[in-house]
What does this fold into?
Amino acid sequence: MIRCALVSFLAFALVVSVACKRVEQRVAELHVPDDSSVTIDLVPLQSDSQSQRWMGVYVSGGKVARFRIELGPAKAAPAQITSEFTFKFGEGRLLPERGADSSVLLADLQKALQAKTLPSTPPQKKTVPFPYANLGDNLSQAGGGGLTQDPPGHWAALKLFFGEGDQESQVFLNINSSIRKAQFAIKDPDYGNLAMAEFAKVL
It folds into this structure.
């Protein structure tokens, strides 16, 4: 009788343990929208071991925005290899896609990045290159926005650098290839207008 009860208890504990792990993983991968970011869907494109490529898709207000995201390999700077906190750096670019209507996406980005003006769309779209910093992997979304290490998840936090000198702007790009979502998020309101000018070139 005791042995049967023990077996039943262990079986129950195992089920609860597995269920808890599943719940924890599911919670860690929840998508949490907030006012300081714009979420897009990711469609994987052919990539290789040295790069990552996606089609970004944003559907809202009856408009469908499409553009491509390419990220080259990220490597640690030599001076940081022995550092406790090692950031990785790489090169990437945003590429335009024909037949897309990004008017709603640009308007939503203006709100999220707190840009004061919406730039006029240039007559011809062009590729926007950028260096980026990988700030962390295996992250999950926090309830109030941003990313956290606890619990772990599948989000990667990137910071993109557009332009140079006094025309430089920065934007966060959070990517979750597991659920195929990405977020453009505000870094600083002072970068809003400059960042929007870069987005308008490609979106």
In short: Residues 7 and 160 are 54 Å apart (CA to CA). Residues 2-28 form the longest helix (27 residues). DSSP finds three helices and ten strands in the chain.
